TrEMBL record:
Residues 1-28 form the signal peptide. The keyword Signal applies. Keywords: Signal. It comes from the Eukaryota. InterPro entries: Transposase-MT_Hybrid (IPR052709). This is Mos1 transposase HTH domain-containing protein.
Amino acid sequence: MHYIRVLYISSRLFPLLLIFFFLEFSSASVAGRKKTKLKDVDVGVKQRVVKHFLTKEKVIPDEIERRLKDVFGNETRDVRDVAGSEERLSWTLDSRSQERVIIQFLTAEGAGPKEVFERLRAVFGKSLPLSTIQRWSRQFRAGRTSVGDLPRNSNLPHTSTK
């Protein structure tokens, strides 16, 4: 679906009209099929992160596959296809994003923020703060599908050399 967004930016000299054309793509990720403008992580990468986490929790491969299918549905990749080393994961995704993927997965399974916090700490020896996990869990339960950061405000003050 195509959308046109019109944004007026005030200026001392004249009003400037900017028209942004953009497409909203359906995101096919864990929390649902909502439309999003946020950049998201590939579903295969998400599944690799979850598989790595569940393996460290000592979950057997058949159970991992069942849980992936429960959450990812028809987008589930074969467990052998999503296998990857911890080093390879770190090339693909920073640790903060990996933790967000796990928060998203465990929230979709029905785990509360405190349980997610404890499980992350048990597996990795560290975790995002509980308040951060609570915020992300709340957003995922509300329908957010992306683990990416929201776009930052680009209206930062700039100086001129003239």
